[in-house]
Amino acid sequence: MARIITITSGKGGVGKTSISLNLSLALAAEGFRVCLFDADLGLANVNILTGIYPKKDLESVISGQLSLNDILIRDYQGIDIIPGSSGVEKLADLTRTETGTLISAFLDLDAYDFFIFDTSAGISAQVLSFCMASHEIILVVTTEPTSLTDAYSMLKVLSKYGYDCSIKVIVNQVTEGKTAQKSYARLKQTVSRFLSAKIEPLGIIASDKNVRASVISQTPFFILFPGTVASRCISAIAEKLIKNQRKTMDLPLEFFWDNCLTFLEKHHHRKDEKAKEKETTKPNTDILEKISQMESKLTLLIKEVGDIRQFLETHVVMTAKKEEPACPEPEEIVLDFESWLNTKKG
Ligand SMILES: Nc1ncnc2c1ncn2[C@@H]1O[C@H](COP(=O)(O)OP(=O)(O)OP(=O)(O)O)[C@@H](O)[C@H]1O
Ligand SMILES: [Mg+2]
């Protein structure tokens, strides 16, 4: 039976995908069989960090066209990856037959030690259903106040639905150990005071420029820079997870999916009724939520493009300096992000 861990956050862009991928690799490096489930519907997901762009995803499994084995990306640096993508969005609207198809597809896939779910940002029904069905949740925060308040909102919703396993917190992008400790302590204090959810610290990950450099190379930092500080933090977290005595039993995958889909079914219906009530007076909150999620993804992407531009500009300027003393103006460098992405895909 696999240990099922859902990696989540309140705020977007705090490092869920980077942590999911690199933590999976660190666990695999310790000899564990790991499957990473990409449940992120957005742009900045596992595809971008690995440079793998699968043609088929979970949707083909749900519709019965393909088996899980057909879509499984095998042995990417020692881990297997399931591309959830559009299939995850479909989970909320499954028919009974499709639910059966999905659950039985996972019956064949129990030969893993760890199943890691990387989720999208925000408190959507899909994200909550993965969290509620897992016995282990890793909540990623940064020291930014907005990240902490959004994490608190996530914990509040999990408390509301009666989540009763302890939630492990990682403070990411840390520049000062003391600030990280203070941020965690403040979150812990507020949670203990007002919520039924229980949190415990799992570790911190330093802010490391090699993390961004690895995004540009589309190779995980744990592989590209094994000795860098972020990789060492990830190793320490993996070690702690391995040593961590679980108070709950491992969950068979089919039970996980059953819990997940049952939660989704209930929650989705409730949402539908609410939406119907509001339809005549207010704009659809689902669409507004999606737009705001897309906005945060775009902001991140623009930031990435800026980083890549800066990286290339510095690189090209430095190369040009070596070859010809007359250095070209940096303004002359035109970066076509789309073509760059396409060359990476090819
Ligand atoms: N420890 C770190 N040091 C420096 N940069 C980091 C670190 N962790 C993550 N980042 C950077 O932060 C950005 C967002 O990371 P990532 O995509 O993993 O976040 P996410 O929580 O999965 O985002 P989303 O909510 O959009 O899914 C990336 O550019 C990544 O390189
Ligand atoms: Mg992500």
Report on this model:
The protein has 346 residues and is an alpha/beta fold. The chain has 2 domains: 3-269, 3-Layer(aba) Sandwich (Rossmann fold); 285-345, no CATH class. It has 15 helices and 8 strands. It has helices spanning 16-29, 46-50, 58-62, 68-71, 85-90, 96-107, 125-133, 145-160, 177-194, 209-217, 221-224, 229-243, 253-278, 285-323, 337-345, and strands at residues 3-8, 34-39, 73-76, 79-83, 114-119, 136-141, 167-174, 199-206. It has an 8-stranded mixed beta sheet with strand order 3-4-2-5-1-6-7-8, sandwiched between helices. Strand 7 (167-174), helix 9 (177-194) and strand 8 (199-206) form a beta-alpha-beta unit. Helix 1 packs across helix 12 (229-243) and helix 8 packs parallel to helix 9 (177-194). It is globular. Mean pLDDT is 82; it is low at 323-341. Residues 16-17, 40, 44-45 line the site of magnesium ion (MG).
Topology of helices and strands:
Layout lengths: L2 E6 L7 H14 L4 E6 L6 H5 L7 H5 L5 H4 L1 E4 L2 E5 L1 H6 L5 H12 L6 E6 L5 H9 L2 E6 L3 H16 L6 E8 L2 H18 L4 E8 L2 H9 L3 H4 L4 H15 L9 H26 L6 H39 L13 H9 L1
Parallel strand pairs: 1-5, 1-6, 2-4, 2-5, 6-7, 7-8
Antiparallel strand pairs: 3-4
Helix pairs in contact: 1-12, 6-13, 7-13, 8-9
The site of adenosine-5'-triphosphate (ATP) has 25 residues, from helix 1, strand 7, helix 10 and helix 14.
Q: Which tags fit this structure?
A:
346 residues, alpha/beta, Rossmann fold, eight-stranded mixed sheet, 55% helix, globular, binds adenosine-5'-triphosphate, binds magnesium ion
